[in-house]
């Protein structure tokens, strides 16, 4: 939004929590719902509001904010927006939500979400204003030029943190003798280390290395977290933008943004997943290069970048002010 010449000021509530958690006993306090740090964050945010005098505040999720703080801000005439990149009601991990998120949902003037099904749930439960703001990608042209020429690795790849559900998909593939490489922390705790079809990289990927891996592997698996089912996630736009070949569950809204079996591929069951992987691995290089080019072109032609999403956000805000 700063690139659009919008006057933006950032309040990083998370830094207060991270500092607080440096002491072990404070971690225990937080786990049992102790509110001291949230009081401190509220005080600091109110100071920021007084000095900056914003028209709009966008709260990303809001795990660190108490309802009383938001009420005080709203009483000052500030328009409150919540954007939850996970789910406002359903939490699949400690980092995806807490009681503050649930308590605060009703105070916002506007909710933003990436999924149509989540939008409908927000309207039904809260009767609140809600708009769709899809995920996007942040790969710029300079970065793409550095990964454009690559030596393809004809394997299935999954990049992300492990859980039992994701691991079960990977196990099914290697049992069916499909070569798979995974990147992310602690995969060795979930997957066997002695399978010839599996390569485990127990490290997360960042920056240019992340984009390079998305592009160079033949198949990029997109395995949703439970709260993304029926919608999409960040990887839904990042893989095509890098010119990668995405294979994801058919329980998504990808067809709103891409063309099935043309820009991306879907599976409906574990059996189907294995069959689709084999089909893509055995596909000719000329055919897979065509898929890559179409996916990349669709991302550019339809403005799926985060800069375009920022423009959409600006339009949404003006719609309500």
Low-confidence stretches: none
* CA distance, first residue to last residue: 17 Å
CATH topology of the largest domain: Rossmann fold
Instruction: Give the CA-based shape.
Output: globular
CATH architecture label of the largest domain: 3-Layer(aba) Sandwich
What is the total number of structural domains?
2
In CATH's first tier, which class of the largest domain applies? Alpha Beta
Question: What value does the average pLDDT take?
Answer: 94
Q: Which structural class do you get from the secondary structure elements?
A: alpha/beta
Biggest sheet architecture:
6 strands, parallel
Q: Number of DSSP helices? A: 13
> How would you spell out the order of helices and strands?
HHHEHEHEHEHEHEEHEHEEHHH
Total number of strands: 10
Assembly state of the chains shown: single chain
Portion in strands: 5-15%
Protein architecture, described:
The chain has a 6-stranded parallel beta sheet, sandwiched between helices. Strands 1-2-3-4 form a 4-stranded parallel beta sheet, sandwiched between helices. It has helices at 13-20, 24-31, 36-52, 67-74, 99-104, 116-126, 141-147, 164-175, 207-216, 235-241, 270-281, 285-301, 306-320, and strands at 56-60, 79-83, 110-113, 130-132, 153-159, 180-183, 198-201, 217-222, 246-249, 265-267. Strand 3, helix 6 and strand 4 form a beta-alpha-beta unit. It starts with 12 loop residues before the first helix and ends with a helix. The chain has 2 domains: 2-134 and 306-320, no CATH class; 141-301, Glycogen Phosphorylase B (Rossmann fold, 3-Layer(aba) Sandwich), CATH 3.40.50. The chain is 43% helix and 14% strand. The protein is of the alpha/beta class and 321 residues long. The chain is globular and about 60 Å long.
């Amino acid at each position: 939004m700063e690139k659009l010449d919008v006057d933006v000021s950032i309040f990083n509530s998370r830094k207060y929590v991270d500092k607080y958690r440096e002491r072990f006993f404070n971690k225990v306090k937080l786990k049992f719902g102790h509110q001291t740090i949230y009081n401190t964050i509220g005080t600091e945010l109110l100071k920021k509001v007084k000095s900056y005098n914003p028209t709009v505040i966008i709260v990303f999720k809001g795990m660190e904010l108490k309802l009383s703080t938001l009420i005080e801000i709203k009483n000052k005439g500030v328009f409150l927006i919540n954007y939850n990149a996970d789910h406002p009601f359903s939490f699949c991990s400690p980092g995806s939500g807490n009681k503050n998120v649930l308590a605060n949902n009703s105070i916002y003037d506007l909710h933003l979400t990436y999924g149509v099904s989540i939008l409908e749930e927000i309207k039904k439960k809260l009767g609140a204003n809600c708009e769709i703001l899809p995920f996007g990608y942040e790969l710029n042209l300079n970065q793409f030029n550095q990964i454009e020429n690559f030596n393809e690795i004809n394997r299935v790849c999954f990049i992300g943190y492990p859980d039992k559900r994701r691991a079960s998909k990977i196990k099914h593939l290697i049992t069916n003798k499909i070569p798979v490489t995974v990147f992310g922390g602690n995969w060795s705790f979930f997957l066997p280390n002695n399978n010839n079809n599996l390569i485990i990289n127990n490290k997360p990927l960042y920056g240019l290395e992340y984009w390079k891996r998305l592009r160079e592997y033949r198949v990029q698996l997109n395995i949703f977290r439970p709260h993304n089912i029926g919608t999409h996630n960040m990887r839904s736009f990042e893989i095509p933008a890098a010119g990668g070949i995405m294979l994801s569950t058919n329980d998504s809204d990808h067809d709103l943004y891409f063309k099935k079996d043309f820009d991306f591929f879907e599976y409906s069951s574990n059996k189907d997943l294995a069959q689709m992987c084999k089909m893509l691995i055995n596909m000719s290089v000329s055919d897979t290069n065509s898929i890559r080019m179409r996916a990349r072109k669709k991302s550019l032609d339809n403005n799926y970048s985060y800069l375009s999403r920022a423009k959409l956000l600006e339009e949404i805000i003006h719609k309500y002010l």
